[in-house]
Design goal:
The complex is a heterotrimer of chains A (about 375), B (about 325) and C (about 500). Chain A is mostly helical and about 375 residues long. Chain A has a domain at about 75-285. Helices cover about 75% and strands about 0% of the residues of chain A. Chain A contains 15 helices and no strands. Chain A has helices at about 5-35, 40-55, 55-80, 90-105, 110-140, 145-165, 190-195, 210-225, 230-240, 240-245, 250-275, 290-300, 305-325, 330-350, 350-360. In chain A, α1 (about 5-35) packs antiparallel against α14 (about 330-350), α3 (about 55-80) runs parallel beside α8 and α12 crosses α13 (about 305-325). The N and C termini of chain A lie close together (about 10 Å). With about 325 residues, chain B is mainly α. Chain B has a single domain, classed as ABC transporter involved in vitamin B12 uptake, BtuC, CATH 1.10.3470. Chain B has a two-stranded antiparallel ribbon with strand order 1-2. The longest helix of chain B is centred in the first third of the chain and has 32 residues, at about 1-35. Chain C starts with 5 loop residues before the first strand and ends in an 8-residue tail after the last helix. The radius of gyration of chain C is 24 Å and the shape is globular. Chain C has 17 helices and 22 strands. Chain C is about 35% helix and about 25% strand. Chain C has about 500 residues and is α/β, with parallel strands linked by helices. Chain C folds into three domains: about 5-240, Rossmann fold (3-Layer(aba) Sandwich), CATH 3.40.50.300; about 255-335 and about 425-505, Rossmann fold, CATH 3.40.50; about 350-420, no CATH class. The chains are: A mainly alpha (about 375), B mainly alpha (about 325), C alpha/beta (about 500). Chains in contact: A-B, A-C, B-C. The interface between B and C is medium-sized, with 24 and 33 residues.
Chain lengths: ~375, ~325, ~500
């Protein structure tokens, strides 16, 4: 067998068959666990599916969750291409949202066409800023970025709690939240947007941020695969010695990639705060930064794959919360388990299926 | 006298908070010195907390709970070892996967078994928890002013697992530096190829090291659920596994400095709960979040090389492939 | 124990790595108490074979006999138990452990270290007396010179009771004096009844120290003779499989203006050890300058400093009269300085990328490959296809992942990329390392053609034959300094050897 002929089919195997096989494994195992607690896995998955796609409202929720996961998945993937494991998307999204929220709170009187771009820029800048310190420490001082980004998640959480409890809290209330943003700063919902062109779509938190997430995916694809900067990033990520030889500074790539990664994570704040909650509240990323790891791994760090797996996870989240009405023992926690298993199979155990499958494949 | 009592109580709280950190951090130290990243401490602790609380609640025995906690820690450790050592998967990914699966599966099983919203039943019967051990003469000593209080509050009155944690550090150091296993383990973390050519199985050493980390995290999780509190609650480790990892890094991958770091981090935690809302001279009220964040900030500063230099084991995070 | 004549016998050892047939039914035997040479070109399968003997790789087929008994060796542990010790080309020592800790690792003698340590110390002192091998037991390994580290490796094997000692290319990192010391030690060990297998690709070493020699080519044994009954020429012909001349057909050089000039260049490594100590020279248009020397005498660092990979401590480098200090490798490339690195498969390619992405590495920001902010995939692919057909890279598939090409074909693509960039100055490290014989002549012709086109070539090689064949002028490096210069006409292996030793007498056996 010549290597030439093997190549394209191997690519299909790695891009499609392997992730799907690993997903199936993860779902099978989750089904086993659902079985174990006395529910029917098939019924559960069927309920989940209809809960996620069964109505316009359900679809809206699914895509609304997916928006968060697209942003964090892209954030993880961009860092991954540069050879960096960014576990800090959670904290970067948290701080990025703060940036967007501050603009909305402070400049809420400005017209939407002015305040929205400003808020987007602020979300990106704040998210990037929160990624900058771990990036700089990795690039210049050799500190392990996995550890520093984890630390920065905790630091972000402490900082935000302090800000919300002591500074930004709306006077005269108990729960640590800011006042509501001025309606002029809200990202229009899908319901409103589609109504404007005469389409009816049930009300849901789905908003313009979904379109921004899709645009960000396209942009990331272009930057990574169609610019010399993306080329440099990929070289540095795969082989630092070759990068130095080619005149690419791995340290500079590390910093630039993490800035982009943090900025993308900041996009979550647009969806969550400007699109849905319309205020800053505690822990609004809600673990989406970690879902981003699963999404990036399953999407093989490719924006197209990330969008697809983000929608899949959005469906799991939405379907999972719907499910708990019918099956009280199956809920969000079940989705977290599935998410963990996807990371386990697509990430840590990817070598398990790779060899037997590629042998089978090249027969 | 007032201040003295306060300090003693603060230190006693420090010891209690430090116990799970010390156990987990020492486990992490064994794992990392063998070259396997110990990000899974969080998940192994949480899993053990649930398992121990569930078994203690059902069986009525804290000891059976401890056994279950250790078994859960070891089982999760084995999963990580299979992924990282046998299949040479990415160690960070494997550990994160375990942490996330555990975070979901514990409340899920808890809900299914006990129907208490994901918690385990309160461990209220005496045998279900590791109670505080009052050392002989502690009651009598209380009336003696200075050393008496120290004995009664600081030395006496902790659960068995606290004393175990205190003993485990010198024991761990002894194993690491004075035994054949320790020598091989440290060698694997530095240069696995050299170890393999010396006729020692790298995989076996790494498996053992990861299992030790699971065992110790298992005890740590058991302490959280059956000694520090009375039962399992959702996400009850709340980052303590990562904090233990930070303490181990802060201790530069050495047992006694790691103990010191755990005590320091625990002290900040104890201080934070004491200082909540209390105005201090000069600075006024320190926001509790600043104190909570201190261990993480210190670890970052250490990693940045601003507080001494921490040199990690050289092969850490690198899967070892015999046939390259 | 009754021991036969034959210490080790290999029967029909066969091994494949994917498409590569590394060992083809290899059979030979090694007599007890002899030094047995195993010689062959790079990639002939010697190291694979020895790794099988030492239990690192399982053989696909075949049998190993130690002392006439078949043994199953599945791990280094089995090999050690069978009395086989191995000194690897890259030392297998834990760098931040002491010598003593390294010596006892795997042979601690009990689970408590203290007892094992004391026992090992006593044993070492005895071995020291017997063999005159002294090492500082409490020194940390990474602080020791390579010659001493190698001794630690040998002691490690002896401490485990090795009766058969395999040394894989042991002289690559040694100075000529250290080499002759090593050979003396090997003879002493042989005279005590131990069996030594010396793996090398250097004919001189085979002739100097071995009793018997086995020649391998393309994974198979092609000859096995007593050393006394053969000659270097006969061995060379066997190694290559045909009568070879490493003579390169080329006319006399016509040097023009200096294109590369280096003034008082000094380089320290990361630990602060001076590796290059104030070196000055020029390379002119239309000449090939070769740098000869034992590996590890500063040649690699010199090349990396000129290429811009390491920052020199002091000194000036200029290309076509323009100083390039402070420029990164990409900026130096823009001035016409191309670099074929020594370790091409590590530094010269990104194995996970397709060939087309590798064909622009270092040139990825050139105008031809970009339009505005975007790359031009069609142009990049077409360009790669052209290079592949020019250099006969197989298969000629620009979209194929680099790791799926053979080592020799990956190398060709690197050479194509650098030479095709039409450089003014070309730096080449070990041009034919890991390249098959057929390609060597092709590469040499290309290099000479480049010279004749008026370019300046700086060549670093540890293969004296290659330097002698290609270079018009030869600089000899030892201890980080240039210790001599010879023209091609006056150079000979003997003269170079003398200079490389850095002293006035020949050290090679």
């Amino acid at each position: 067998m010549s290597a030439e002929r093997a190549a394209p089919s191997l690519r299909w195997l790695e891009a499609l068959v392997l992730p799907l096989a690993n997903l199936v494994l993860a779902l099978l195992l989750s089904g086993l666990i659902i079985r174990l607690i006395g529910e029917s896995p098939l019924a559960a998955f069927r309920l989940m599916l209809s809960g996620a796609f069964g109505s316009q409202e359900a679809l809206g929720y699914t895509l609304y969750y997916a928006t968060n996961f697209i942003f964090t998945g892209l954030a993880v993937a961009v860092a991954f291409h540069a050879g960096l494991f960014n576990i800090g998307a959670e904290g970067q999204a948290y701080i990025g949202g703060l940036g967007a929220g501050l603009v909305c709170l402070g400049l809420g009187s400005l017209p939407f066409w002015l305040v929205a771009p400003l808020a987007i820029v602020a979300a990106a800048l704040f998210g990037a800023g929160w990624a900058l310190v771990p990036a700089w420490l990795q690039a210049r001082r050799g500190s392990h970025i996995v550890i520093t980004t984890i630390m920065f998640n905790f630091l972000a959480s402490a900082l935000m709690t302090w800000l919300l409890v002591n500074i930004l809290i709306k006077p005269g209330q108990q729960s640590p939240e800011t006042r509501e943003f001025a309606p002029g700063t809200w990202l229009p919902s899908a319901h409103d947007l589609l109504a404007r062109i005469g389409l009816s779509f049930a009300p849901s938190p789905l908003n313009l941020a979904f379109a921004l997430a899709i645009a960000a995916s396209a942009l990331v694809w272009l930057v990574i695969w169609r610019t010399r900067w993306g080329y440099a990033l990929r070289v540095a990520g795969k082989n630092a010695a070759a990068a130095r030889y080619a005149g690419i500074s791995p340290a500079r790539v590390t910093i630039a990639a993490m800035l982009l990664s943090g900025a993308l994570a900041g996009g979550l704040g647009l969806n969550e705060l400007m699109g849905a909650e319309h205020r800053i509240l505690l822990d609004f990323p809600g673990g989406a930064g970690f879902v981003g790891i699963a999404v990036a791994l399953m999407g093989r760090n490719n924006p197209v794959g990330i969008v697809i797996s983000a929608i899949l996870f959005g469906a799991l989240y939405q379907g999972g919360s719907e499910l708990s009405f019918d099956m009280p023992h199956v809920n969000r926690d079940t989705v977290v388990v599935i998410q963990g298993l996807v990371i386990l199979f697509c990430g840590a155990l990817e070598n398990v299926l790779k060899r037997p499958l590629s042998r089978l494949w090249s027969r | 006298m007032e201040t003295y009592t306060l300090i003693i109580l603060l230190l006693a709280a420090t010891i209690r908070v430090a116990t799970p950190l010390v156990l987990a951090a020492l486990g992490g130290l064994f794992s990392e010195r063998a070259g396997v990243i110990a990000l899974g401490l969080e998940g192994m602790m949480l899993g053990a907390a649930f398992a121990s609380a569930a078994v203690a609640a059902v069986s009525g025995s804290a000891w059976l709970g401890l056994g279950a906690g250790m078994a859960a820690g070891v089982a999760l450790a084995l999963l990580i070892a299979v992924a990282c050592v046998t299949f040479r998967g990415n160690q960070v990914v494997a550990a994160m996967a375990v942490n996330i699966v555990v975070a979901g599966i514990c409340p899920m099983l808890g809900l299914a078994w006990f129907d208490l919203g994901g918690q385990t039943p309160q461990l209220s019967n005496p045998g279900q928890r590791f109670a505080e051990i009052i050392l002989p003469g502690a009651h009598a000593a209380r009336s003696v002013p200075v050393p008496g209080l120290l004995y009664a509050e600081l030395v006496s009155g902790h659960s068995l697992l606290v004393y175990l944690a205190a003993a485990i550090v010198p024991a761990g150091a002894w194993v690491l530096y004075r035994t054949r296993f320790g020598l091989r383990l440290r060698a694997v973390g530095e240069d696995p190829e050299a170890v393999e050519t010396a006729g020692i199985s790298v995989a076996a050493i790494r498996f053992q090291a990861v299992v030790i980390s699971g065992l110790l995290s298992g005890i740590a999780g058991t302490y959280l659920a059956t000694a520090a509190s009375s039962g399992f609650a959702r996400d009850m480790t709340a980052g303590k596994g990562y904090l233990a990892l930070a303490a181990m890094i802060f201790g530069k991958w050495r047992p006694f400095p790691t103990l010191g770091a755990c005590l320091l981090f625990a002290f900040t935690d104890a201080l934070a709960s004491r200082l909540e809302g209390v105005p201090l001279p000069v600075v006024g009220v320190i926001p509790v979040q600043f104190i909570v964040a201190l261990p993480y900030a210190l670890t970052v500063l250490l990693l940045a090389g601003f507080v001494g230099k921490a040199v990690a084991p050289k092969s850490i995070g690198v899967p070892y492939a015999k046939d390259k | 124990m009754n021991k036969g004549e034959t210490a080790l016998e290999l029967r029909g050892i066969d091994k494949r790595f994917g498409a590569v047939h590394a060992n083809r039914a290899v059979s030979f035997s090694v007599r007890r108490g002899t030094i047995h040479g195993l010689i062959g070109e790079n990639g002939a399968g010697k190291s694979t074979l020895m790794n099988i003997v030492y239990g690192f790789h399982p053989a696909d087929a075949g049998e190993l006999l130690v002392d006439g008994r078949a043994v199953a060796i599945r791990s280094p542990q089995d090999a050690i138990a069978a009395g086989i010790g191995m000194v690897h080309q890259h030392f297998m020592l834990v760098p931040n452990f002491t010598v003593l800790e390294n010596l006892i690792l795997g042979a601690e003698g009990g689970w408590r270290l203290a007892a094992g340590r004391a026992k090992a110390r006593a044993a070492m002192e005895r071995i020291e007396r017997e063999h005159g091998l002294s090492v500082p037991l409490d020194a940390v390994v990474e602080d020791l010179p390579v010659g001493i580290q190698q001794r630690v490796e040998i002691l490690k094997a002896l401490n485990r009771g090795a009766e058969i000692l395999i040394l894989d290319e042991p002289t690559a990192v040694l100075t000529p004096q250290e080499t002759s010391q090593l050979f003396e030690l090997l003879r002493r060990l042989r005279d005590q009844g131990r069996t030594i297998i010396l793996v090398t690709h250097k004919l001189k070493e085979i002739m100097a120290v071995t009793d018997n020699v086995t020649v391998m080519r393309q994974g198979a044994v092609v000859a096995g003779v007593a050393t006394a009954a053969t000659s270097p020429q006969a061995l060379a012909d066997e190694m290559v499989g045909r009568a070879v001349s490493l003579e390169v057909a080329k006319g006399p050089a016509a040097p023009g203006v200096p294109l590369l000039s280096v003034r008082d260049l000094a380089v320290r490594d990361r630990k602060g050890v001076p590796r290059v100590k104030g070196v000055s020279f020029e390379v002119r248009a239309g000449e090939i300058v070769g740098i000869a020397g034992v590996a590890g005498n500063g040649q690699s660092e010199l090349l990396e400093a000129i290429a811009g990979l390491v920052e020199p401590e002091r000194g000036e480098i200029s290309v076509s009269g323009r100083p390039v200090n402070g420029l990164d490798p990409r900026e130096r490339r823009a001035l016409g300085l191309a670099h074929i690195p020594e370790d091409r498969l590590r530094m010269g390619v990104v194995a996970a990328f397709p060939a087309r992405d590798n064909a622009i590495l270092g040139y990825h920001d050139r105008a031809g490959y970009n339009r505005g902010p975007f790359t031009r995939p069609a142009r990049i692919s077409g360009d790669c296809a052209r290079k592949m057909s020019d250099w006969d890279v197989r298969p000629p598939a620009p979209g194929l992942r680099m790791s799926l090409f053979s080592g020799g074909n990956q190398q060709k693509l690197v050479l194509a990329r650098e030479i095709d960039s039409n450089p003014v100055v070309l730096l080449i490290g070990q041009p034919t390392r890991g390249v098959d014989i057929g390609a060597i002549e092709f590469i040499h012709r290309r290099l000479v053609a480049l010279r004749d086109a008026g370019k300046a070539l700086l060549l670093v090689s540890v293969e004296l034959d290659e330097i002698l064949g290609l270079a018009d002028r030869i600089l000899v490096m030892a201890g980080g300094e240039i210790v001599g210069e010879l023209s091609a006409a006056e150079a000979s292996e003997e003269k170079l050897g003398l200079m490389m030793a850095g002293i006035g007498k020949a050290a090679h056996g």
